[in-house]
Specification:
By secondary structure, the chain is an alpha/beta fold. It has eight helices and eleven strands. The strands form three sheets. A five-stranded parallel beta sheet has the order 2-1-3-4-5, sandwiched between helices. Strands 6-7-8-9 form a four-stranded antiparallel beta sheet, with helices on one face. It is elongated, with a radius of gyration of 19 Å.
Length: 225
Amino acid sequence: MRVLVIEDDCEAARYMVKGLAESGHLADHAADGVDGLAMAGGGQYDVLVVDRMLPRLDGLSLVAAFRADGGDTPVLFLSALGQVDDRVKGLKAGGDDYLVKPYAFAELLARIEALARRRNPAQAETRFRVGDLELDLLARQVNRAGRRIELQPREFQLLEYLIRHAGQVVTRTMLLENVWDYHFDPQTSVIDVHISRLRAKIDKGFDRPLLHTVRGAGYSLRDAD
């Protein structure tokens, strides 16, 4: 995957480019809106990561101009402006997703990869496996070590999201937005309750845990301690 990072904060840009490279992706950097628009129009990128507050040409204007010229590359806005109106303006300008600073790199990477998949969909997977845990989307069944596990619909949704991101750290924000479709923090223990129920069903009674809590970051489904 090839990503264009349009960000005037060079230290932040280096952090993103380095993280993307370590994750096996290629990344280019533009430090202002004018250069970013030129590179976006001339390069074959899978995703654009665009800061809203850019010199010479702001992020909203950049994306609007890119779309007006026929550009269809998915755009992820990054901004310290996190109010609902700010997000709406970003989406209306042609953005596909919006992430508020500060952010966890794991979430940034997951969102970038999701946008790339959306643009270049591979044949949809219907069966997933982590260790001896199996999830079958078509049959709506979950098994571990050959034992059938009964899940409630929301628990199944939660496990599906975790297993699609197996090995990655999934943040609470990612779960709220993608499992519950909340784009705000409801200030409830809904995630903790469902994680606890899911963990009791897929881990209790088995020889090793698969659902791990990553302190201060979120959760990870992986076949490791």
